[in-house]
């Protein structure tokens, strides 16, 4: 059931309920018809009735078998801060027909979400179609993309395997600034290790990663232009006055190494200058992008020369990034080169230098790399991850299911679009091996499914529970649960007196 | 060349440069490696050099032939407000290695964008691969999605035709809150008429549209529950004490109309109650969603009864919305019904009642509706429009092309990924009929293409200009321009003394 190799990450985030993460998330972030309906309800005196809404989706995204539920904290934050400002009320007054009565605006002025109750599955948990339940509306916006991108991240983690580092590099291709920030947050919840996005790092405390671009490499001409050439050793005991020459010396040594002969001749001097400058700036964190000119004939040898020079001064270089070409082949060739250096110059650990790969990666390319065999340690994934290219939207809907304790349902000629009436409880039934078997919904006041053991002869046998598919009469199964978990917990108690589950929101 | 039926809408927006639209758009909204590189440049003393970057894309989106350029105002707003706060500098200090020198943070404290110049095509204009030029970096995030969704909107406008109203209904399915707000803004620039998104309406002054949902309809039981039944006539001269009965009377009349006999029997009373309540709340703006139960057997007759009752009091109902089923067929049937009512009860204009259609519409479904023949006046488009489902990202890139007046280029084994060096000028050449023929790039200091007329015998002939494809030698053409337009205007002059083009940014 643990869909993501690295498990849910939400406990590593640091939310605070005081104010929305995104200041644009105000009560106006909604469709106009929510206000026209609110007015009509108010006019008809229906605003005091008690209504229950279900928020759910009908189909798992990406043709897959599960969805990672996310966006809950943003929803709770939204209702915790739900209050109209005078400026917002003026805007609404100017937007609605002039026939709307003043009393409505007084009503809006007075409302907050203290009468609302929210029950939901926990953020970061795996959920299935039709069973997520929530109250209140712009939630759909906050849940849809969050759950979609968290699910996408979990799927990438599943393909990449637990041992690889997954880095989210999507900011520049995301759907707007907040698309980028949300992507970083929910990819982390879905099992990624770090992001390149500094704003997300600051807002959520997500680890950040990043080195340099091709432009950095091509902005240099040759090592001659490096003015400040000195570098103190890692332990501070000595200073190398000409690090640039030290790098050149190492490059010559590599060039004349018998086992590496023929792989490369002259390397690109602009690239060498860029790597040397970068190492002078970040001696403790030297990671270089090696594909600006030619990976094996320039990038990797240049990198090794700088890394060996750093090693002389006690620093350990981090690794390389590949951003083009045949990533499987190049990573294997680079790995061989690193091991050759380790052997030749007796630098322990040099062979295990980290190799990061990027360049339009997605689930399919990760799978193809696995099949080809590769030596990549970390994947930087952008466009396909954050825009959810394979399926750009999750079809979350929000349906009225009960009003004043009376059931309500939406009918449709398409049976899959019929809503299931009444307030519900949801349970996950676990089998003998500890894996979940099935999720079931019951009416609010029905007894919960029980794990009851009955003695049959000398055996202790757990009782069977009959589970039916909501729409397909032929789909039914007896399940013998060893454990029952209630899925929907109270995250916002309103005035109900129910004790909220704050574990993931404070 | 006017790709969108309704032309660019940007002049209808009301931007102010004072502060970003989205408060998350701060100097931290960038990749970590921008800061590591900035530090390395600063360490190497290269931060004082003058660099030129091109921002461009390699391929038009959606398999199409053009892109609508958008996001420029957000970029200008970003640089106009570019300044690090002390809190941001502290965060950076804690995020970068402790070896980074203090002087760098002092340098960050001091910088703004007064040394930057930005040249660009105008927002909302049609552009082609490789020719958009800009400076500075998180621009890519701001331009990518903006241009993508504006292009998507323009394509929907092209298919729908000029005479139809296009309404953006995407907020709930957009990629996060700002995904929704940006979508509303750039769909409007791309040729949409209105949005359902209230926050976007307030921020940008975009017209808003919206009525009610299926939940509103199913929240009512029967007309008996309507307590406040009186409605003043439109001119204020009289009051109908029981509007509910007036609606019931009209419903009976329609039911006994010979020409409508057999279409429907009993209509749904919950729906009738909802429509009546909505009309009492919005007598001047009555528009009803008619597909909660059955469009032709309940929704349309109920709608007509309420609309006719409103008509008795001098109000003109607006129309219906269809959100499921065969939209082409149902719109034609509803239209026939309306004309029958107009004829039978002599209500002028009733036949032309507006019909709005929604439900997972996209370019293909609009095209299919056109082919089938329909009576829809307005389309509400959501998911496919705002998430750019057909292609969720535009591949904008940002490449260094010149430094200290020296050309720079990125090489690649893939020739289409080679960048074109040097600062450029771009021109659009127009032919005899006033249509653009081709866009060309020249070096910054090359003479602009001229419209020169030479007399040949008794004919006046314009001079030919040889245009070459940047990468494909076999693609070349002589063009005889009648008019030349310079595409890249200065939108941010920095200290260059160039007079900025403020037409779309103030």
TrEMBL record, chains A, B:
Region called Disordered, residue ranges: 1-20
GO cellular component, one term: cytosol
InterPro entries: Aldolase_TIM, NAPRTase_C, NAPRTase_N, Nic_PRibTrfase-Fam, Nic_PRibTrfase_pncB, Nicotinate_pribotase-like_C
Compositionally biased intervals (Basic and acidic residues): 1-17
GO molecular function, one term: nicotinate phosphoribosyltransferase activity
Function text: Catalyzes the first step in the biosynthesis of NAD from nicotinic acid, the ATP-dependent synthesis of beta-nicotinate D-ribonucleotide from nicotinate and 5-phospho-D-ribose 1-phosphate. Helps prevent cellular oxidative stress via its role in NAD biosynthesis.
GO terms under biological process: NAD+ biosynthetic process via the salvage pathway
Listed pathway(s): Cofactor biosynthesis; NAD(+) biosynthesis; nicotinate D-ribonucleotide from nicotinate: step 1/1
Keywords in alphabetical order: Ligase, Magnesium, Manganese, Metal-binding, Phosphoprotein, Pyridine nucleotide biosynthesis, Transferase
Superkingdom of source: Eukaryota
Residue ranges of domain Nicotinate phosphoribosyltransferase C-terminal in the record: 423-493
Family: Belongs to the NAPRTase family.
Residue ranges of every copy of the Nicotinate phosphoribosyltransferase N-terminal domain listed in the record: 28-134
CDD domains hit by this protein: NAPRTase_A
Catalytic activity annotation: 5-phospho-alpha-D-ribose 1-diphosphate + nicotinate + ATP + H2O = nicotinate beta-D-ribonucleotide + ADP + phosphate + diphosphate
Alphabetical list of Pfam families matching this protein: NAPRTase_C (PF17956), NAPRTase_N (PF17767)
Names of the cofactor(s): Mg(2+); Mn(2+)
EC number, UniProt record: 6.3.4.21
Name of the protein: Nicotinate phosphoribosyltransferase
Top enzyme class: ligase
Post-translational modifications: Transiently phosphorylated on a His residue during the reaction cycle. Phosphorylation strongly increases the affinity for substrates and increases the rate of nicotinate D-ribonucleotide production. Dephosphorylation regenerates the low-affinity form of the enzyme, leading to product release.
């Amino acid at each position: 059931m643990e869909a993501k190799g690295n498990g849910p990450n939400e406990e590593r985030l640091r939310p605070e309920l005081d104010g929305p993460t995104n200041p644009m998330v105000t009560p106006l972030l909604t469709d106009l018809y929510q206000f026209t309906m609110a007015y009509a309800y108010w006019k008809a005196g229906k605003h005091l009735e008690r209504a229950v809404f279900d928020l759910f989706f009908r189909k798992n995204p990406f043709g897959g078998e599960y969805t990672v539920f996310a966006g809950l904290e943003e929803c709770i934050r939204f209702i915790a801060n739900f209050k109209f400002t005078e400026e917002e009320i003026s805007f609404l007054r100017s937007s609605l027909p002039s026939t709307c009565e003043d009393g409505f605006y007084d009503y809006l002025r007075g409302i907050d979400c203290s009468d609302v109750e929210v029950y939901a599955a926990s953020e970061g948990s795996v959920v299935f179609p039709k069973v997520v339940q929530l109250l209140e509306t712009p939630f759909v916006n906050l849940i849809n993309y969050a759950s979609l991108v968290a699910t996408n991240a979990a799927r990438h983690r599943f393909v990449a395997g637990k041992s690889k580092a997954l880095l989210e590099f999507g900011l520049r291709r995301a759907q707007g600034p907040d698309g980028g920030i949300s992507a970083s947050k929910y990819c982390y919840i879905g099992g990624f290790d770090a992001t390149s996005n500094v704003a997300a790092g600051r807002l959520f405390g997500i680890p950040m990663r990043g080195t340099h671009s091709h432009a950095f490499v091509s902005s240099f001409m040759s090592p001659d232009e490096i003015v400040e050439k000195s570098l103190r050793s890692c332990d501070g005991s000595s200073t190398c006055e000409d690090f640039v020459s030290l790098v050149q010396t190492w490059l010559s040594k590599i060039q004349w190494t018998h086992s590496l002969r023929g792989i490369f001749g002259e390397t690109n001097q602009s690239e060498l200058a860029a790597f040397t400058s970068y190492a002078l700036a970040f001696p403790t964190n030297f990671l270089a992008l090696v594909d600006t000119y030619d990976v094996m004939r320039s990038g990797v040898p240049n990198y090794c020369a700088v890394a060996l020079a750093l090693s002389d001064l006690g620093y350990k270089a981090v690794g390389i990034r590949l951003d083009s070409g045949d990533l499987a082949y190049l990573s294997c060739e680079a790995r061989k080169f690193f091991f050759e250096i380790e052997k030749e110059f007796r630098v322990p650990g040099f062979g295990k230098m980290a190799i990061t790969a990027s360049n339009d990666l997605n689930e399919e390319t990760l799978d193809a790399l696995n099949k080809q065999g590769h030596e990549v340690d970390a994947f930087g994934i952008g466009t396909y991850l954050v825009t959810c290219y394979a399926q750009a939207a999750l079809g979350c809907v929000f349906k009225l299911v009960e009003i004043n304790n009376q059931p309500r349902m939406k009918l449709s000629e398409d049976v899959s679009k019929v809503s299931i009436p009444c307030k519900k409880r949801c349970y996950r039934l676990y089998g003998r091996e500890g894996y979940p078997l099935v999720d079931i919904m019951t009416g609010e006041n029905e007894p919960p499914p029980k794990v009851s053991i009955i003695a049959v002869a000398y055996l202790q046998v757990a009782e069977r529970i009959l589970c039916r598919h909501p729409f397909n009469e032929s789909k039914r199964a007896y399940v013998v649960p060893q454990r029952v978990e209630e899925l929907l917990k109270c995250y916002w108690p309103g005035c109900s007196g129910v004790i909220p589950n704050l574990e993931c929101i404070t």
